[in-house]
Amino acid sequence: MALRGMLLHQQLLLWLTISAVTAASQLNSRCQRNCGSVKIPYPFGTSWDCSLDESFLINCQNISGTPKPFLVAGSIEILNISLNDGELLVSTSLTSRCFNNRSSQSIWSKFPISDRKNKFITVGCNIIAYVRESSGSYASTCITICDGNSSVVKRPCSGKGCCETSIPQGVVNFNVEMLEPISCGFAFVVKEEEFHSLSFDLQNLQNKSTVPVVLDWTIANKTCEDARKLKSYACKADHSECHYSTNGRGYICKCSSGFEGNAYTENGCTDIDECKRSHPCNQICHNTIGGYNCSCRKGYELIYEENGKGYRTVPTGCHHIRGNELVKTSIIALCISVSLLILLLGGSWIYWGLKRRKNLKLKEKFFQQNGGLLLKKQVSNHESSVTTKIFTAEELKKATNNYDKSTVLGQGGYGTVYKGVLSDNTIVAIKKSKIGDQSQIEQFINEVIVLTQINHRNVVKLFGCCLETKVPLLVYEFITNGTLYDHIHDKGRSSLLSWEKRLKITIEIAEALSYLHSATSMPIIHRDVKTANILLNDNYTAKVADFGASRLVPLNQTQLTTLVQGTWGYLDPEYFQTSNLTDKSDVYSFGVVMAELLTGKKVLSFDRPEIDRNLATSFVSAIKEDCLLQILEVHVVNEGNIEQLKEVANLAKRCLELRG
Question: Is 528 a catalytic residue?
Answer without folding.
Answer: yes
